[in-house]
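queue> pop job 88
queue> type: inverse folding (structure -> sequence)
queue> payload:
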């Protein structure tokens, strides 16, 4: 995920100065966005292939279904507490397939 953020920051670092340049040249806001976006895309496509490939690999891994779920520290702590209670009380059945409020 770090590679994706790094590549996104590179693209943003290319886009923002170009946008400001075109805005100062008074080409209009819409054209400034379009021109800056196209030029930033072209530069990043031509010169940042290694970063783009790393970002693509990171996104492929995240959405492949093999990646570990991203959990907050609180969620991990809650899951560990729940696992501990289930292990201490094996006679209690836990059904996680039910939605809250359904019977």
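queue> result:
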């Amino acid at each position: 995920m770090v590679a994706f953020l790094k590549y996104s920051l590179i693209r943003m670092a290319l886009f923002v100065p170009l946008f400001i340049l075109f805005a100062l040249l008074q080409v209009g806001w819409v054209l400034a966005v379009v021109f800056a976006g196209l030029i930033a895309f072209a530069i990043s496509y031509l010169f940042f292939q290694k970063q783009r490939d790393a970002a693509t690999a990171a996104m492929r891994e995240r959405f492949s279904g093999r990646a570990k779920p991203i959990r907050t520290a609180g969620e991990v702590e809650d899951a560990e507490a729940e696992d501990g209670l289930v292990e201490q009380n094996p006679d209690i059945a836990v059904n996680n397939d039910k939605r809250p409020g359904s019977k």
